[in-house]
Design a protein that fits this description.
Layout: H1 6-11, H2 39-46, H3 60-73, E1 77-81, H4 84-95, E2 101-105, H5 110-122, E3 126-130, H6 135-141, E4 146-152, H7 164-174, E5 177-181, H8 186-189, H9 192-195, E6 199-203, E7 217-221, H10 223-236, H11 242-253, H12 255-274, E8 279-283, E9 296-301, H13 307-312, E10 318-319, E11 329-331, H14 343-349, E12 355-359, H15 365-378
Parallel strand pairs: 2-3, 2-4, 4-5, 5-6, 10-11
Antiparallel strand pairs: 1-7, 6-7, 8-9, 9-12, 11-12
Helix pairs in contact: 3-11, 4-5, 4-10, 12-15
The structure holds pyridoxal-5'-phosphate.
Catalytic activity: L-methionine + H2O = methanethiol + 2-oxobutanoate + NH4(+); L-homocysteine + H2O = 2-oxobutanoate + hydrogen sulfide + NH4(+) + H(+)
GO cellular component, one term: cytoplasm
InterPro entries: Cys/Met-Metab_PyrdxlP-dep_enz, Cys_met_metab_PP, PyrdxlP-dep_Trfase, PyrdxlP-dep_Trfase_major, PyrdxlP-dep_Trfase_small
C-alpha cells in the first residue's frame, strides 16, 4: 500500500485477516457482504459450497444465534431475526396464507395480539382469539381451513402455564401446526419442539440476551419450515445485525446461570408477597420445569394500595417496559404491553389497574424482598 495515494491508503490500510483465527472470543463479522477470489469462487456460493455472500442472507454471528438456540431446543434448525416480533411474523407467513384460519390464544403479549389483529388479518388470513385455558374450547373452534394454533408457553402478564402438550396433541389430531412463543420459559426450562411443536419463537431481547442491551428474535423448528422462513426473512429484510447477534450470543452463554438465580429469587419473592396483607393476589407459575418456574412474578395490589405511590417507592428498582434483564424491574401492563388490547378483553383477562409485573433479577434475594415489602408498606 505504501506506493498508493492518500485516499487509497486511507481505505485499504487494514492488514489481511490472519490465516488461522486464534481469537478466544468469536469475532464480530460486522460486514454487509463477503469478498471472493474470482468468479468461480463467487459461483460456489450459489452452488451451496460457500456459506456467506451478503449479510442480509446470512452472517456467521446471526447464524450462531439461530443455530445455537436450535441446539438448545433440540430442533433441526433455527434462524435469527431483527426482533421477537419479526420471528413471529416469519413463522406465521411460513404456515398461513390468504383464506386460512388461525386460532390464537386471547392471552398474548400485546404486540403479538396487535400483529394478528391488524397485520395478519389484513393479509386475508382469518385470526380468531379464543381462551386456551380450556382445550375443549380450542378444539371446538378448529375449522376445516385452520392451519395454526398459536400460544405462549407461559403467558404474559398473568403467568399461566399453558398445557403445551395438550395443544400439540390437538394439533396432531387435526393436522394443524402448532407454534409456541417460549420467551418466558426460555429453552433452559422448557423445550416445546421436543414435545412436538412445529415452530418455536423467542424474543431474544429478553432472557437469551439477558442484559437489556439488544433487540433480537429467533425462530426454530424443522429444517423444511426454517428454510422457508429464512427465505422470507431475507426477502422482507428482517434479518438480525451481526453485532446484535454477537451480544445475544454472549448473553446465551450464561442463560442457565442467570435463570437458576433469577428463578430462586422469584420463588422467594412470590412466597414473601403471598403472605403480605397488602397484596390481593400473587401470580407465579406453580410448575414450569424441574429446574425452576421462571423469574416473573405479577401481583394485584390490594385496592387500598396507591399504585402511583408504589411505583415511586421502589428505591433502586427501576420501572421498565421490558423484562428478563439481570436487574430487577417492574412494569405496569395496563399502560404498556397491554395498552393496545381492547378494554373489554383487558377486563376479561384480569389486567386491571392494581396489576404490577415484576421481572426478578440476579441481585440478593433479601434486598429484593425487603425493597418490595417496604414500597408496599409506604403506599
Ligand atoms: C417481548 C416479547 C415479544 C416481542 O419481542 P421483541 O423482541 O420486543 O420484538 C414477543 N413475545 C413475548 C412473550 C415477549 O415478551
Amino acid at each position: 500500500m505504501k506506493d498508493k495515494q492518500f485516499d487509497t491508503r486511507a481505505v485499504h490500510f487494514q492488514s489481511k485477516e490472519p490465516a488461522r483465527n486464534t481469537s478466544k472470543a468469536k469475532p464480530i463479522y460486522q460486514t454487509s457482504a463477503f469478498v471472493f477470489k474470482d468468479l468461480d469462487d463467487m459461483e460456489s456460493f450459489y452452488e451451496g459450497e460457500k456459506e456467506y455472500l451478503y449479510s442480509r442472507y446470512s452472517n456467521p454471528n446471526t447464524d450462531d444465534l439461530g443455530k445455537g438456540i436450535a441446539l438448545l431446543e433440540n430442533a433441526e434448525d433455527g434462524v435469527a431475526t431483527s426482533s421477537g416480533m419479526a420471528a413471529i411474523l416469519a413463522g406465521i407467513l411460513v404456515v398461513a396464507k390468504q383464506g386460512d384460519h388461525i386460532l390464537a390464544s386471547e392471552d398474548l403479549y400485546g404486540g403479538t395480539y396487535q400483529l394478528f389483529a391488524d397485520e395478519v388479518t389484513s393479509l386475508g388470513i382469518e385470526v380468531e382469539f379464543v381462551s386456551f385455558e380450556d382445550l375443549a374450547n380450542v378444539k371446538g373452534a378448529i375449522k376445516s381451513n385452520t392451519v395454526l394454533l398459536y400460544t405462549e408457553s407461559v403467558t404474559n402478564p398473568l403467568l399461566r402455564v399453558e398445557d403445551v402438550e395438550g395443544i400439540i396433541q390437538l394439533g396432531k389430531e387435526y393436522r394443524v401446526k402448532v407454534m409456541i412463543d417460549n420467551t418466558f420459559a426460555t429453552p433452559y426450562l422448557l423445550q416445546p419442539y421436543v414435545l412436538g411443536a412445529d415452530l418455536v419463537i423467542h424474543s431474544a431481547t429478553k432472557y437469551i440476551g439477558g442484559h437489556s442491551d439488544v433487540t433480537a428474535g429467533v425462530l426454530v423448528g424443522h429444517e423444511s419450515l426454517i428454510a422457508k422462513a429464512r427465505s422470507k426473512i431475507i426477502t422482507m429484510g428482517c434479518n438480525l445485525s451481526p453485532f446484535e447477534a454477537w451480544l445475544a450470543c454472549r448473553g446465551l452463554k450464561t442463560l442457565s446461570v442467570r435463570m437458576d438465580k433469577q428463578c430462586r429469587n422469584a420463588q422467594a419473592l412470590a412466597h414473601a408477597l403471598e403472605e403480605d396483607p397488602n397484596i390481593h393476589r400473587v401470580y407465579y407459575p406453580g410448575f414450569v420445569s424441574g429446574k425452576g418456574n421462571g423469574a416473573m412474578v405479577s401481583v394485584d395490589l390490594a385496592d387500598h394500595v396507591d399504585v402511583e405511590v408504589f411505583f415511586k417507592s421502589l428505591d433502586w428498582i427501576k420501572i421498565a417496559p421490558t423484562l428478563a434483564g439481570v436487574e430487577t424491574t417492574v412494569s405496569y401492563p395496563l399502560r404498556t404491553s397491554h395498552r393496545t388490547i381492547p378494554e373489554e378483553l383487558q377486563k376479561e383477562l384480569g389486567i386491571g389497574k392494581q396489576l404490577v409485573r415484576i421481572s426478578v433479577g440476579i441481585e440478593d434475594e433479601m434486598d429484593i424482598v425487603e425493597t418490595f415489602k417496604k414500597a408496599i408498606r409506604l403506599s
